[in-house]
Every structure is written in C-alpha cells, then in structure tokens.
Design goal:
The protein has 85 residues and is an all-alpha fold. Helix content is 82%, strand content 0%. The chain is built from five helices and no strands. The relative contact order is 0.07.
C-alpha cells in the first residue's frame, strides 16, 4: 500500500503518525462502503472516533511527561533513589 510506504518514509514521527491515521481512515471508509447507515457504518464511525480521541489527548505536556517516565524508568540511579524514599 503506497500510503503506508510514504508514511514510513517520513523522518518526522508526528507526520508519520498522521499519515498512518489518514490511511486508517481511508481503509475504514472502504470497508464500510457507501450507502445507507448500516452496522458497518456505525463501527467505522466508532473506529474513526477512537483515532480522533487519541489525537485530542496528544499534547506537548503529555509527550514531555511520557519521555520523562521512560527516562526515569530506565535510569538505575533514579530507581535507587525512589526505592529509598
């Protein structure tokens, strides 16, 4: 699939994620098909809503916090200090 190949070719992680989610939207739309509202359309809407909710939670502060958690979890000095408290 060309969309995914193009996404993985990007060096910016945020752009890569955005392109992958665009491909997910496209795939969900293809699988749901065109026509009246059916159960497929409800599921497609739910999947797209989950993707949008994920993007709504992404903030710079949340990213900074996640990075610090990973660093601290892998820093033996930090783990030793936390155990002594």
């Amino acid at each position: 699939m060309k969309m995914i190949q193009d996404a993985f070719a990007k060096s910016n992680p945020m752009e890569k994620e955005q392109d992958i989610d665009k491909a997910r939207f496209w795939l969900v739309d293809c699988l749901a098909g065109v026509g009246e509202g059916t159960v497929k359309h409800v599921y497609a809407y739910a999947i797209k809503l989950k993707i949008c909710e994920r993007w709504a939670r992404l903030t710079e502060a949340a990213g900074d916090s996640a990075v610090l958690n990973v660093i601290n979890a892998n820093d033996p000095a930090y783990a030793s200090a936390a155990e002594q408290e």
